Amino acid sequence: MAKAIQLYSLATPNGQKVSVALEELGLAYEAHTIDIRKGDQFSDEFKKINPNSKIPAIVDPDGPGGKPLAVFESGAILLYLSEKAGGKLLPSDPTQKWEALSWLFWQIGGVGPMFGQFGHFHKYAPEKIEYGINRYKTEVKRLLAVLEKQLEGRDYIIGSEYTLADVATFPWVRCLDTGYNAADVVELDSFKNVKDWVARCEARPASKAGLNVTPFPK
């Protein structure tokens, strides 16, 4: 029996990416909550897993050669898990695979940083800085428009197949509403294809389960 992957995370969009992937891939895992509000990520124990003190991170006790392996950065974790599961959540067709990977890194390089900065200035900053709010709101809406166009006539980002690109992106889009309470601010309802796609992703039983792993402690 395979040894369970150890997941160290919190239910932020970046954390949810990995728990959603683990559920969709059917890999055995044990989840450990890292409460970033309390500074758990700066503990000496956690920094042995991720020296950059960020969630999520995993330890696979049965890594390459049967040796334990720590992996951090959500994109790297997603690729590792897909490979461990025999390439699931990536198309077998090479052209479609690279299309999915392009959109995966679009999320990592664009959606994550821009949506995160928007959320900070909109909801969490101790003072309202209009320049910051407007700068990142504009970029969020631009990225939503890119996604809206890509989803035209498609169930998922690259077509009919649910891939790592969807896994990585939909938690960030839903966070605009569920986390940042900013659906009206970014006019989320005007992006119909995006809204329908998020609902489609959330309706998948494994993805729905993955969203609720390592919830924020009350």
TrEMBL record:
Its EC number is 2.5.1.18. The keyword Coiled coil does not apply. It comes from the Eukaryota. Residues 93-218 form the GST C-terminal domain. Pfam families: GST_C, GST_N_2. Belongs to the GST superfamily. This is Glutathione S-transferase.
